[in-house]
Write a structure and sequence with these properties.
Length: about 210
Amino acid sequence: METWTDEDGQVWISCDALATGDYHPGADYGEANIRYLEDGEDAFVSHGAHGHKQLWLPDTPENRELVEYLEHDYPLLSDQTHAEVISDWEEEAWGSWIRHDLLNSLGRNSYLKDWAGEIPEQELRRMYWDVMSETNAQVVAEGSGVAIHDFDVVCHNFRIVVVARFWGDAVPQGWSLPQDETDARVLSDYLRDQGRELEADVLLELEDLL
């Protein structure tokens, strides 16, 4: 238990489970506990470097009991609030790296990546959520952000979904995915004859993407 006395002589208490920050162990638990308690009348939050923040409570018997519970029994006050923290951090990660890394996994052909980047945002997110569900991938806290277990598998399955969508947009109705390189070349030559050279080039790379 940490204590701090302000200039008026008021004693405040806190603990690791009421703190969060970029380099703070259990930052997700701390963030959830702060959110759960910070609207209380007597609580206040201090801020420091590298996103550090810590919630302090008046030194009362009730608050000592709460802090001791967090320190010795269970470091989380609300599973629901914790789930909201992970969801919010996943949303931030989508903008900072998940979307970028998924599109980057589409291979060396910039046309396919650019094409996928033009898919409406909500549909792209839905493709990601569907793949996450099918893969049973877990979003877990890492520092003050998230990581995705088996992200290489997520990327692989995302490529399959994007290629299927591309196939439906680029290829005449009735054509199926090529079974080998010969099939791919036949279809590629067909598209090239139609003046669709970029799509033809992408189709030749499908075997590498799947």
